[in-house]
Amino acid sequence: MAVHLWVRHETRETERRTPLIPADARRLIELGFTVTIERSPQRIFAIEQYADAGAEIVDSGTWVDAPTDAYILGLKELPDEPAELAHRHIFFGHAYKGQEGAAELLERFRRGGGQLLDIEYLTDESGRRVVAFGYWAGYVGAALGVLQYADQLKAPLQPTDKNAIDTQLAEVATPPRTVVIGAYGRSGRGAVDALSVAGAEVTTWGIDDTRELDKPALLGHELLVNCVVSFAPQPPFVEAADLTADRALRVIADVTADVTSDANLLPINTAITTWDEPVRLINDTPLLEVIAIDNLPSLLPREASEDFSAALRPQLEVLETGAVTWTNTAESFARNI
Ligand SMILES: NC(=O)c1ccc[n+]([C@@H]2O[C@H](COP(=O)([O-])OP(=O)(O)OC[C@H]3O[C@@H](n4cnc5c(N)ncnc54)[C@H](O)[C@@H]3O)[C@@H](O)[C@H]2O)c1
């Protein structure tokens, strides 16, 4: 029987991204999938594009009555109702590390007999995540850092596109001397690309470059873009003693934004910043400001959706073939439920 994918409307009003773009919906339909798309007023792609691709179009939130064999596909949190989740859901559940609301979500799956196929746990044989939003997070995070350094960042932030960002970056007369830490990962590569559009001089540090941290070199840069994935506590990149030190560093763009974790490598900041107030003053003289927005890719909804869908679609093609990525995420659910 055809695999049935049901793409739900995202309940967060600021969430314009989608996990499946119309071109990838078309491709799956050509392969024999049944694709249902819920209407969603804020989604960056028009519903007509999905209809043209051959998808069935339904109203927002109707997934609750979808056939039980349908896979419900989304990005962010489910609405609070129904209390029992009977379907297989593919999305970011944030449910396995004791996060806020995690126990309640798992309980809903337990009661309904459904399954969470969490995209974060869709990993290959080596444990590496195969679908993530990193590149555009790094791109937009570094861009915000450059604009703040140049005193050209306007709040509140609004979803935009790459062309608009690139135009702003190209107008910065004196871009900051920048260090990108975690430069060879997904978000690090995005950051380096944005910085090259700005014409900034960039130092790229990977994991081998920070083992013995060269603090004077770090503080000699005007902008720091943090793109590392960190699981265990290690010596911080910037700490309290550095605030009053003689330094060039003025702006930190913390793409990692793991601000409440024990492994936060920027403990001078312990709270995220927002689209309304993207910048926090950490120290007055000498100046140090931080940007730590945790939903950066939502600021570039089209590019982020295209990139994400390009990585997810091949996985969806093997959804029912016993592929290791799906068995890995199913096992994560089984361990945590
Ligand atoms: N703010 C946001 O909106 C947003 C969006 C997406 C991802 N993220 C976060 O950004 C982080 C990076 O994500 P990614 O997809 O780029 O991950 P990734 O795994 O692709 O890259 C991380 C890189 O960091 C490097 N690294 C680890 N420890 C290091 C150290 N001590 N020094 C230097 N380099 C080190 C790794 O070698 C790797 O190359 C993650 O924590 C992720 O959750 C944030």
* Ligands present: nicotinamide-adenine-dinucleotide
Q: What is the first-to-last residue Cα distance?
A: 28 Å
Uncertain residue ranges: none
Mean pLDDT: 96
How many individual helices? 10
Indicate the CATH architecture of the largest domain. 3-Layer(aba) Sandwich
The CATH class of the largest domain turns out to be Alpha Beta
Kindly state the number of beta strands.
12
Strand content: 5-15%
Largest sheet strand order: 3-2-1-4-5-6
Tell me the name of the CATH homologous superfamily of the largest domain. Answer: NAD(P)-binding Rossmann-like Domain
What share of residues is helical?
A: 25-40%
CATH topology of the largest domain: Rossmann fold
- Radius of gyration (CA) equals 21 Å
Shape, principal axes of CA atoms = globular
Q: What structural class do you assign from the helix and strand content?
A: alpha/beta
Major beta sheet, specifics? 6 strands, parallel
Number of domains: 2
Structural key phrases:
Rossmann fold, binds nicotinamide-adenine-dinucleotide, 6-stranded parallel beta sheet, 2 domains, 10 helices, 6-stranded mixed beta sheet, alpha/beta, 337 residues
